[in-house]
Amino acid sequence: MTATGRAAGVRARADEVRSTVEASPVHDERTAAILGLALGVSFTICFVTGLLSHLAQHPTSWFAWPARPAGLYRVTQGLHVATGLASIPLLLAKLWAVFPHLFRWPPFESAAHLVERVMLVPLVFGSVFLLFTGTANVMHWYPWRFSFTRSHYWVAWMTVGALVAHVGAKAGTTVLALRRRDTTGTSAGATAATAGDGVGPAPSSSPAIPSRRAYLGWTAAASGLVTLTTVGQTVWPLRSAAVLAPRRPDIGPQGVPVNGVPSAEVRAAATSADYRFRVYGDVEEELSLTLEELRSLPGHTAALPITCVEGWSRQATWTGVTVSELMARAGVPASATVDVRVESFQHGSAYQYSTMSDEQARDRDALIAFDLGGEPLHMDHGYPARLIAPNRPGVLQTKWVEAIRVTRR
Ligand code: HEM
Q: Which H helix or E strand runs over 68?
């Protein structure tokens, strides 16, 4: 075939695709605008709650994650994962709605239009990447070698940047598409107008074209179903419906789920007769307590959630000694401003230490806990002692604790 023949073929294919696009309300601007709005809202929620999770784990000089309300992180991270999972059907529906526009000919009409189309690359790649890695992470499936948190974090910035540019470029079209009366939902002729009004059935000459209302309805139903079958991992009354969630909040040792289990070394250190719990650093008198001595100190019981970064959570009753009580016994004045490092037997692992600000450490419910639900901690929950404090991601509720180090500011 000659070059002229090939060009004519491409043009004919483009015309064919364009007429299909114009005839289908599924692929028109109004459908794209509605799905775009829904994704804009869900990605904004994901981005803000994701940033909060990042700040809770990586405090900065300008933002200190508060100790209260005790269940705040449970809400923000539960929302993050639930909204992210619900976005999967939305994104697939949006990509399908706009997919035929890729065949547009000519591919761009001006320099500004070219830039706008190039920005779609990070937007589409970033959205798919975030939803895929996020879902794989909560399912404990890691088919990659890079750091999940670092890449998820930076791709989130890139995606949201591209999203802002996309929203800016499409704001006018979106407003017009949404303002237009739905009965003129497509700009094409009678066939499309009937199919696109979302009310009447499509004419018999185009049975394959679903109405916009049906398309959006199925998309919303798919998002709702994903939410219903996963959100029970943190919303207690829906726990038995959480058939697609990686965790159920009522399943685990002592009725509380766990993620990390101890290595043989940690298990040996935790059950050793030589176990001592230490308080050291900027203290008047270092403490070195056997488990019995720790348990004999004035105790405190608190009802606090354990909340995983992966979106599951469980309210439970914990008993132990408050971090404040331990500091007072080591001679740290109540007036001193401190940072506290909680140290675990998990030597060499990313979870060996967690840190607490003064506000977090001095909270009335910040505990070195040894009982859960009135019984000694199960080994998987951090026996003989673990940190449990309000409003902290589970990765910072250090288990198998051997010491706390106090630093005065
Ligand atoms: C199915 C969808 C998603 C799931 C299941 C998901 C899951 C997660 C999880 C489990 C974390 C905590 C990681 C950790 O601390 O170990 C996280 C963090 C985060 N997510 Fe997502 N995510 C999803 C979508 C998104 C989207 C769409 C955005 C942005 C638009 C986003 C932005 C972030 C950010 C900024 C963080 C903080 C990363 C850090 O701590 O450095 N996520 N996500």
A: none
The pTM score is 0.90
Same domain, 265 and 144: no
158 Cβ below 6 A of ligand 1: no
Same domain as 259, residue 222: no
Residues 46 and 191 in one domain: yes
Considering only CA atoms, which residue is closest to atom 34 of ligand 1?
Answer: 50
Residue 246 inside a domain? The answer is no
Cβ(223) to ligand 1 under 6 A?
Answer: no
- 54 Cα–ligand 1 center, Å: 9
Q: How far is the CA of 249 from the centre of ligand 1 (A)?
A: 20
d(CA 93, CA 28): 12
Angle between helices 29-57 and 120-138 (to 10 degrees): 60
> Are 67 and 151 contained in the same domain?
yes
Substitution site in 42, 79, 80 for ligand 1 pocket (most atoms within 8 Å of beta carbon)? 80
Which ligand 1 atom is nearest residue 138's CA?
10
Pairing of strands 338-344, 401-408: antiparallel
> Would you mind telling me the total number of residues written for the chain in this entry?
409
pLDDT in tens, the chain (409 residues): 677 778 788 777 767 766 766 678 999 999 999 999 999 999 999 999 999 999 999 999 999 999 999 999 999 999 999 999 999 999 999 999 999 887 788 989 999 999 999 999 999 999 999 999 999 999 999 999 999 999 999 999 999 999 999 999 999 999 999 998 765 444 333 343 333 333 334 444 444 668 999 999 999 999 999 999 999 999 999 999 999 999 999 999 999 999 989 999 999 999 999 999 999 999 999 999 999 999 999 999 999 999 999 999 999 999 999 999 999 999 999 999 999 999 999 999 999 999 999 999 999 999 999 999 999 999 999 999 999 999 999 999 999 999 999 999 9
Count of domains for the chain? 2
User: Which CATH number does the domain housing residue 366 bear?
Assistant: 3.90.420.10
- Give residue 323's domain range: 255-408
Asked whether residue 259 falls in the same domain as residue 224, the answer is no
**Rounded distance, CA 192 to CA 186, Å?**
6
Considering the domain architecture, whether residues 203 and 59 belong to the same structural domain is answered as yes
Domain co-membership, 192 together with 305: no
Q: Is residue 297 part of a domain?
A: yes
Tokens read off for 97: 């709605």
CA distance 381 to 326: 21
> Which helix (H) or strand (E) is 265 found in, with range?
helix 264-271
159 lines ligand 1 (CB under 6 A): yes
> Do 259 and 206 fall within a single domain?
no
